């Protein structure tokens, strides 16, 4: 596939888009439209998220943060400490069945929300990779065009130098006669 892209790019640089077959022109137009459409793809992606998706991302962000972990550990310590201190009057005596129910419910709710957020992040990463590929392809085409211009400039320089050399040789040959 890489060779086909390179051939298309070289043909585009050498001949220009007007001389390309219709199929190749459509491919280039498609790439150009995609590049134009992906100028601010990240903001467009963020704008396309639903309310539920935004909430899921915030829950995943908060649930994986140190403030949440520390706060959650403190709440658990307070819960356990209060129930041990209250002993016979405890609202959740040892073995903390209510705490286990709360933890299980939290895990049952939080896990799928985090998974939804991770799936969306994977989709966003795929869009990022596609965008990076397109940018890299465009950069490669620009580099190839610059190389072509440099090569043309060098060929023109060499042709000028050759003409000057031929003129000198012709002048020297004319003087020698």
Strand composition percent: under 5%
Mean pLDDT rating: 84
Rg, alpha carbons: 34 Å
Helix content: over 70%
Low-confidence stretches: none
Content-based structural category? mainly alpha
| SSE order | HHHHHH
The tally of helices reads 6
How many strands appear in the DSSP assignment?
0
Q: What does the overall shape look like? A: rod-shaped
Tell me the domain tally: 2
Distance between termini?
61 Å
Report the biggest beta sheet as strand number plus sense, adding barrel if it closes.
Answer: none
Structural description of this entry:
- The protein contains six helices and no strands.
- By secondary structure, the chain is mainly α.
- The chain has two domains: 37 residues, no CATH class; 139 residues.
- The chain starts with a helix and ends with a helix.
Helix and strand topology:
Blueprint: H1 2-15, H2 22-37, H3 41-48, H4 51-63, H5 66-86, H6 97-176
Helix pairs in contact: 1-6, 4-6
Give a nutshell description of this structure:
This protein is mainly α and about 180 residues long.
Question: Main attributes?
Answer:
mainly alpha, 177 residues, 2 domains, 6 helices, 0% strand, rod-shaped
């Amino acid at each position: 596939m890489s060779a086909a892209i390179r051939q298309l790019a070289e043909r585009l640089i050498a001949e220009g888009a007007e001389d390309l077959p219709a199929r190749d022109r459509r491919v280039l137009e498609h790439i150009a439209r995609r590049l134009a459409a992906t100028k601010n793809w990240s903001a467009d992606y963020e704008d396309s998220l639903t309310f539920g998706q935004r909430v899921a991302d915030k829950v995943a962000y908060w649930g994986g943060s140190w403030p949440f972990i520390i706060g959650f550990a403190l709440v658990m310590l307070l819960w356990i400490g209060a129930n041990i201190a209250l002993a016979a009057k405890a609202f959740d005596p040892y073995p903390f069945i209510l705490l286990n129910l709360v933890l299980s419910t939290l895990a049952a709710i939080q896990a799928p929300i985090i998974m939804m957020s991770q799936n969306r992040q994977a989709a966003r990463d795929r869009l990022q990779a596609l965008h990076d590929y397109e940018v890299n392809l465009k950069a490669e085409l620009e580099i190839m065009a610059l190389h072509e211009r440099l090569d043309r400039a060098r060929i023109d320089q060499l042709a000028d130098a050759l003409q000057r050399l031929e003129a000198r040789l012709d002048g020297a040959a004319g003087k020698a006669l």
